[in-house]
Protein backbone atom coordinates (compact mmCIF):
# COMPACT_ATOMS: atom_id res chain seq x y z
CA UNK A 1 0.00 0.00 0.00
CA UNK A 2 1.49 3.33 -1.03
CA UNK A 3 1.31 6.65 0.79
CA UNK A 4 -1.62 8.03 -1.21
CA UNK A 5 -3.62 4.88 -0.49
CA UNK A 6 -3.06 5.35 3.23
CA UNK A 7 -4.02 9.04 3.04
CA UNK A 8 -7.24 8.08 1.26
CA UNK A 9 -8.05 5.66 4.08
CA UNK A 10 -7.77 8.54 6.55
CA UNK A 11 -9.94 10.78 4.36
CA UNK A 12 -12.62 8.12 4.17
CA UNK A 13 -12.57 7.73 7.95
CA UNK A 14 -13.08 11.49 8.40
CA UNK A 15 -15.51 12.02 5.53
CA UNK A 16 -18.82 13.74 6.39
CA UNK A 17 -18.20 13.60 10.16
CA UNK A 18 -18.12 16.34 12.75
CA UNK A 19 -14.49 15.94 13.77
CA UNK A 20 -12.83 17.24 16.94
CA UNK A 21 -9.04 16.97 17.08
CA UNK A 22 -6.55 17.37 19.89
CA UNK A 23 -4.25 19.88 18.22
CA UNK A 24 -0.63 20.77 19.02
CA UNK A 25 0.44 22.12 15.63
CA UNK A 26 3.03 19.35 15.29
CA UNK A 27 3.32 17.12 12.25
CA UNK A 28 0.71 14.53 13.23
CA UNK A 29 -2.10 16.81 14.39
CA UNK A 30 -1.40 19.26 11.57
CA UNK A 31 -1.87 16.60 8.91
CA UNK A 32 -5.05 15.21 10.42
CA UNK A 33 -6.46 18.75 10.74
CA UNK A 34 -5.51 19.47 7.12
CA UNK A 35 -7.22 16.29 5.86
CA UNK A 36 -10.27 16.87 8.05
CA UNK A 37 -10.63 20.41 6.71
CA UNK A 38 -10.82 18.89 3.22
CA UNK A 39 -13.22 16.01 3.86
CA UNK A 40 -15.13 16.30 7.14
CA UNK A 41 -18.56 17.87 7.55
CA UNK A 42 -17.10 20.18 10.20
CA UNK A 43 -13.79 20.41 12.03
CA UNK A 44 -12.88 21.75 15.45
CA UNK A 45 -9.33 21.64 16.78
CA UNK A 46 -8.80 21.86 20.52
CA UNK A 47 -5.46 23.09 21.81
CA UNK A 48 -4.44 22.63 25.44
CA UNK A 49 -2.07 25.19 26.92
CA UNK A 50 -0.63 23.56 30.02
CA UNK A 51 1.91 26.36 30.68
CA UNK A 52 4.85 23.99 30.14
CA UNK A 53 5.14 24.30 26.37
CA UNK A 54 7.85 25.69 24.07
CA UNK A 55 7.83 29.41 23.29
CA UNK A 56 5.37 30.30 20.54
CA UNK A 57 3.41 27.05 20.85
CA UNK A 58 -0.08 28.60 20.99
CA UNK A 59 0.66 31.22 18.34
CA UNK A 60 1.83 28.51 15.94
CA UNK A 61 -1.42 26.58 16.36
CA UNK A 62 -3.42 29.73 15.62
CA UNK A 63 -1.55 30.29 12.36
CA UNK A 64 -2.22 26.73 11.23
CA UNK A 65 -5.96 26.85 11.93
CA UNK A 66 -6.28 30.18 10.14
CA UNK A 67 -4.51 28.69 7.12
CA UNK A 68 -6.85 25.67 7.06
CA UNK A 69 -9.97 27.75 7.73
CA UNK A 70 -11.15 25.66 10.68
CA UNK A 71 -12.40 26.48 14.17
CA UNK A 72 -10.14 26.36 17.21
CA UNK A 73 -10.70 26.27 20.95
CA UNK A 74 -7.70 27.07 23.18
CA UNK A 75 -8.05 25.77 26.73
CA UNK A 76 -5.74 26.77 29.56
CA UNK A 77 -4.98 24.13 32.18
CA UNK A 78 -2.40 24.93 34.85
CA UNK A 79 -0.51 21.65 35.29
CA UNK A 80 1.39 23.26 38.16
CA UNK A 81 -1.78 22.78 40.20
CA UNK A 82 -1.78 19.01 39.72
CA UNK A 83 0.33 17.29 42.36
CA UNK A 84 0.34 13.91 40.60
CA UNK A 85 1.74 15.47 37.45
CA UNK A 86 4.39 17.43 39.38
CA UNK A 87 5.52 14.28 41.20
CA UNK A 88 6.71 13.08 37.77
CA UNK A 89 6.43 9.37 38.42
CA UNK A 90 6.45 6.63 35.79
CA UNK A 91 2.82 7.46 34.92
CA UNK A 92 3.62 11.05 33.93
CA UNK A 93 2.70 10.56 30.26
CA UNK A 94 -0.54 8.85 31.24
CA UNK A 95 -1.39 11.57 33.78
CA UNK A 96 -0.61 14.34 31.29
CA UNK A 97 -2.78 12.91 28.55
CA UNK A 98 -5.67 12.27 30.94
CA UNK A 99 -5.64 15.90 32.05
CA UNK A 100 -5.71 17.06 28.43
CA UNK A 101 -8.12 14.50 27.01
CA UNK A 102 -10.67 15.01 29.78
CA UNK A 103 -10.90 18.63 28.67
CA UNK A 104 -10.85 17.82 24.94
CA UNK A 105 -13.71 15.35 25.42
CA UNK A 106 -15.71 17.89 27.44
CA UNK A 107 -15.34 20.67 24.86
CA UNK A 108 -16.04 18.39 21.90
CA UNK A 109 -19.25 17.12 23.50
CA UNK A 110 -20.39 20.63 24.42
CA UNK A 111 -19.86 21.80 20.84
CA UNK A 112 -21.63 18.80 19.30
CA UNK A 113 -18.60 17.13 17.76
CA UNK A 114 -19.14 13.40 18.10
CA UNK A 115 -16.02 12.08 16.31
CA UNK A 116 -13.02 12.83 18.54
CA UNK A 117 -9.59 11.84 17.29
CA UNK A 118 -5.90 12.45 17.78
CA UNK A 119 -2.80 12.25 15.62
CA UNK A 120 -1.25 9.10 17.04
CA UNK A 121 0.44 7.15 14.26
CA UNK A 122 1.58 3.54 14.02
CA UNK A 123 5.20 4.48 14.87
CA UNK A 124 4.03 5.89 18.22
CA UNK A 125 3.10 2.37 19.32
CA UNK A 126 6.74 1.27 19.16
CA UNK A 127 7.98 3.82 21.72
CA UNK A 128 7.40 4.12 25.46
CA UNK A 129 4.37 6.43 25.59
CA UNK A 130 1.79 5.04 28.05
CA UNK A 131 -0.55 7.96 27.34
CA UNK A 132 -1.93 5.94 24.42
CA UNK A 133 -3.99 4.05 27.02
CA UNK A 134 -6.07 7.19 27.59
CA UNK A 135 -6.86 7.30 23.88
CA UNK A 136 -8.14 3.74 24.09
CA UNK A 137 -10.02 4.25 27.35
CA UNK A 138 -11.91 7.25 26.02
CA UNK A 139 -12.62 5.65 22.68
CA UNK A 140 -10.91 8.45 20.73
CA UNK A 141 -10.34 7.55 17.10
CA UNK A 142 -6.87 7.09 15.63
CA UNK A 143 -7.15 7.36 11.82
CA UNK A 144 -3.38 7.29 11.27
CA UNK A 145 -3.04 4.05 13.20
CA UNK A 146 -5.95 2.53 11.28
CA UNK A 147 -4.24 3.49 8.01
CA UNK A 148 -0.85 2.22 9.27
CA UNK A 149 0.78 5.59 8.64
CA UNK A 150 4.28 5.95 10.09
CA UNK A 151 5.82 9.17 11.35
CA UNK A 152 8.18 9.18 8.38
CA UNK A 153 5.29 8.94 5.91
CA UNK A 154 3.45 11.78 7.64
CA UNK A 155 6.48 14.05 7.35
CA UNK A 156 6.94 12.98 3.74
CA UNK A 157 3.37 13.95 2.87
CA UNK A 158 3.56 17.29 4.69
CA UNK A 159 6.78 18.17 2.89
CA UNK A 160 5.42 17.07 -0.49
CA UNK A 161 2.32 19.25 -0.06
CA UNK A 162 4.27 22.16 1.49
CA UNK A 163 2.08 22.10 4.59
CA UNK A 164 3.75 24.08 7.39
CA UNK A 165 3.95 22.58 10.87
CA UNK A 166 5.87 23.11 14.09
CA UNK A 167 8.78 20.79 14.85
CA UNK A 168 8.87 21.73 18.54
CA UNK A 169 5.64 20.90 20.38
CA UNK A 170 6.57 18.55 23.21
CA UNK A 171 5.91 19.53 26.82
CA UNK A 172 9.06 20.77 28.56
CA UNK A 173 8.35 18.46 31.50
CA UNK A 174 9.54 15.60 29.28
CA UNK A 175 13.07 17.00 29.72
CA UNK A 176 13.07 16.12 33.42
CA UNK A 177 13.95 12.53 34.45
CA UNK A 178 11.19 10.33 35.82
CA UNK A 179 10.83 10.38 39.62
CA UNK A 180 12.48 13.82 39.73
CA UNK A 181 10.00 16.51 40.74
CA UNK A 182 8.87 19.00 38.12
CA UNK A 183 9.10 22.63 39.23
CA UNK A 184 8.50 26.00 37.60
CA UNK A 185 12.15 26.88 38.17
CA UNK A 186 13.35 23.87 36.18
CA UNK A 187 10.87 24.48 33.37
CA UNK A 188 11.81 28.15 33.10
CA UNK A 189 15.51 27.30 32.94
CA UNK A 190 14.95 24.63 30.29
CA UNK A 191 12.78 26.99 28.25
CA UNK A 192 15.37 29.78 28.38
CA UNK A 193 18.22 27.47 27.37
CA UNK A 194 16.32 25.91 24.48
CA UNK A 195 15.24 29.32 23.19
CA UNK A 196 18.82 30.56 23.42
CA UNK A 197 20.14 27.70 21.29
CA UNK A 198 17.31 28.07 18.77
CA UNK A 199 18.01 31.78 18.39
CA UNK A 200 21.76 31.35 17.99
CA UNK A 201 21.84 28.36 15.62
CA UNK A 202 19.98 27.04 12.60
CA UNK A 203 18.64 24.09 14.60
CA UNK A 204 14.89 23.50 14.38
CA UNK A 205 14.56 21.05 17.28
CA UNK A 206 16.32 21.56 20.61
CA UNK A 207 15.86 19.67 23.85
CA UNK A 208 17.78 20.44 27.02
CA UNK A 209 17.60 17.46 29.38
CA UNK A 210 17.78 18.65 32.99
CA UNK A 211 19.76 16.59 35.50
CA UNK A 212 20.00 19.21 38.26
CA UNK A 213 23.64 20.38 37.95
CA UNK A 214 24.17 18.75 34.54
CA UNK A 215 22.24 19.15 31.31
CA UNK A 216 22.37 17.18 28.07
CA UNK A 217 21.68 19.12 24.90
CA UNK A 218 19.97 17.32 22.01
CA UNK A 219 19.50 18.92 18.60
CA UNK A 220 18.57 17.96 15.05
CA UNK A 221 21.76 19.46 13.60
CA UNK A 222 24.96 18.60 15.49
CA UNK A 223 27.18 20.61 13.13
CA UNK A 224 25.49 23.78 14.33
CA UNK A 225 26.88 23.24 17.81
CA UNK A 226 30.36 21.89 17.16
CA UNK A 227 31.57 25.08 15.55
CA UNK A 228 34.11 26.33 18.11
CA UNK A 229 32.65 29.78 18.64
CA UNK A 230 29.11 28.49 19.00
CA UNK A 231 29.71 25.65 21.43
CA UNK A 232 31.83 27.88 23.66
CA UNK A 233 29.10 30.53 23.60
CA UNK A 234 26.34 28.01 24.34
CA UNK A 235 28.40 26.30 27.04
CA UNK A 236 29.04 29.61 28.78
CA UNK A 237 25.40 30.73 28.58
CA UNK A 238 23.97 27.45 29.91
CA UNK A 239 26.47 27.43 32.76
CA UNK A 240 25.40 30.97 33.55
CA UNK A 241 21.90 29.53 34.09
CA UNK A 242 23.19 27.28 36.86
CA UNK A 243 24.41 24.11 35.14
CA UNK A 244 27.88 23.06 36.22
CA UNK A 245 28.35 20.72 33.28
CA UNK A 246 26.89 20.97 29.77
CA UNK A 247 26.96 17.78 27.68
CA UNK A 248 26.04 17.21 24.04
CA UNK A 249 24.22 14.11 22.82
CA UNK A 250 26.00 13.18 19.58
CA UNK A 251 22.91 11.35 18.28
CA UNK A 252 20.81 13.87 16.39
CA UNK A 253 17.08 14.13 17.08
CA UNK A 254 15.13 12.39 14.33
CA UNK A 255 11.37 13.00 14.32
CA UNK A 256 10.87 10.83 11.22
CA UNK A 257 10.31 7.54 13.00
CA UNK A 258 9.66 4.48 10.92
CA UNK A 259 9.37 0.78 11.78
CA UNK A 260 12.04 -1.72 10.84
CA UNK A 261 11.76 -5.43 11.63
CA UNK A 262 14.56 -7.92 12.20
CA UNK A 263 13.53 -10.21 9.31
CA UNK A 264 15.13 -13.32 7.81
CA UNK A 265 13.83 -16.33 5.88
CA UNK A 266 10.18 -15.62 6.53
CA UNK A 267 10.51 -14.88 10.24
CA UNK A 268 10.72 -11.61 12.17
CA UNK A 269 11.16 -10.29 15.68
CA UNK A 270 10.62 -6.91 17.30
CA UNK A 271 11.23 -5.98 20.94
CA UNK A 272 8.95 -3.24 22.22
CA UNK A 273 10.25 -0.96 25.02
CA UNK A 274 7.35 -1.84 27.32
CA UNK A 275 5.56 -4.92 28.63
CA UNK A 276 2.26 -6.23 27.35
CA UNK A 277 -0.93 -6.58 29.37
CA UNK A 278 -1.83 -10.08 28.20
CA UNK A 279 -5.37 -10.04 29.61
CA UNK A 280 -6.38 -6.76 27.97
CA UNK A 281 -4.65 -7.62 24.70
CA UNK A 282 -6.52 -10.92 24.56
CA UNK A 283 -9.80 -8.97 24.63
CA UNK A 284 -8.74 -7.01 21.54
CA UNK A 285 -7.64 -10.04 19.54
CA UNK A 286 -10.75 -12.11 20.27
CA UNK A 287 -10.99 -15.01 17.79
CA UNK A 288 -7.47 -14.57 16.41
CA UNK A 289 -5.84 -16.38 19.35
CA UNK A 290 -4.86 -20.02 18.88
CA UNK A 291 -3.17 -20.54 22.24
CA UNK A 292 -2.84 -18.39 25.35
CA UNK A 293 -1.05 -18.49 28.67
CA UNK A 294 -0.29 -16.05 31.47
CA UNK A 295 2.74 -14.61 29.65
CA UNK A 296 2.15 -15.32 25.97
CA UNK A 297 -0.47 -15.17 23.20
CA UNK A 298 -0.06 -17.21 20.04
CA UNK A 299 -1.88 -16.27 16.83
CA UNK A 300 -1.73 -18.06 13.49
CA UNK A 301 1.80 -16.86 12.69
CA UNK A 302 2.60 -14.26 15.35
CA UNK A 303 3.50 -14.69 19.03
CA UNK A 304 3.04 -11.91 21.58
CA UNK A 305 5.16 -12.17 24.71
CA UNK A 306 4.42 -10.35 27.94
CA UNK A 307 7.97 -8.93 27.97
CA UNK A 308 7.24 -6.99 24.75
CA UNK A 309 8.89 -9.37 22.29
CA UNK A 310 6.79 -9.90 19.17
CA UNK A 311 7.83 -12.70 16.81
CA UNK A 312 6.41 -13.97 13.53
CA UNK A 313 6.94 -16.85 11.12
CA UNK A 314 5.88 -18.08 7.67
CA UNK A 315 5.78 -14.66 6.02
CA UNK A 316 6.71 -14.81 2.34
CA UNK A 317 8.07 -11.24 2.15
CA UNK A 318 9.29 -8.51 4.45
CA UNK A 319 6.31 -6.36 3.45
CA UNK A 320 3.75 -8.98 4.51
CA UNK A 321 5.64 -9.46 7.79
CA UNK A 322 5.62 -5.71 8.42
CA UNK A 323 1.90 -5.41 7.78
CA UNK A 324 1.20 -8.44 9.92
CA UNK A 325 3.18 -6.84 12.74
CA UNK A 326 1.33 -3.53 12.31
CA UNK A 327 -2.04 -5.28 12.41
CA UNK A 328 -1.15 -6.81 15.77
CA UNK A 329 0.54 -3.65 17.04
CA UNK A 330 -2.66 -1.59 16.99
CA UNK A 331 -4.44 -4.26 19.07
CA UNK A 332 -1.81 -4.52 21.80
CA UNK A 333 -2.56 -3.14 25.23
CA UNK A 334 0.48 -2.26 27.26
CA UNK A 335 1.30 -1.98 30.93
CA UNK A 336 2.39 1.32 32.46
Can you tag this structure with a few keywords?
336 residues, alpha/beta, 13 helices
Question: How would you describe this structure to a colleague?
Answer:
With 336 residues, the protein is an alpha/beta fold. 41% of the residues lie in helices and 18% in strands. The protein contains 13 helices and 13 strands. Helix 5 packs parallel to helix 6 and helix 9 runs antiparallel to helix 11 (228-240).
Write the layout of secondary structure elements.
Blueprint: H1 3-14, E1 18-22, H2 27-39, E2 42-49, H3 57-68, E3 71-76, H4 83-87, H5 92-111, E4 115-117, H6 132-138, H7 143-146, H8 151-160, H9 184-200, E5 206-211, E6 214-219, H10 223-226, H11 228-240, E7 245-248, E8 262-264, E9 267-271, H12 278-285, E10 291-293, E11 296-298, E12 302-305, E13 309-312, H13 318-329
Amino acid sequence: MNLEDKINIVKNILKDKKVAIGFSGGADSTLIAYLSAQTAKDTLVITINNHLLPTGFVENTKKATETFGIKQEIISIDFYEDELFLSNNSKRCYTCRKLMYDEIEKIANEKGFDFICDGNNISDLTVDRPGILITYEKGFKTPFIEAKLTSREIHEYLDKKNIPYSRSTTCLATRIPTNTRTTAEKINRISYCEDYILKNTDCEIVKVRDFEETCIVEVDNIRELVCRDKYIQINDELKAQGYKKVALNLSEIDDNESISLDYAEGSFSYKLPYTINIENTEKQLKNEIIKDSHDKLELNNITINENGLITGKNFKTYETALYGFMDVLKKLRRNI
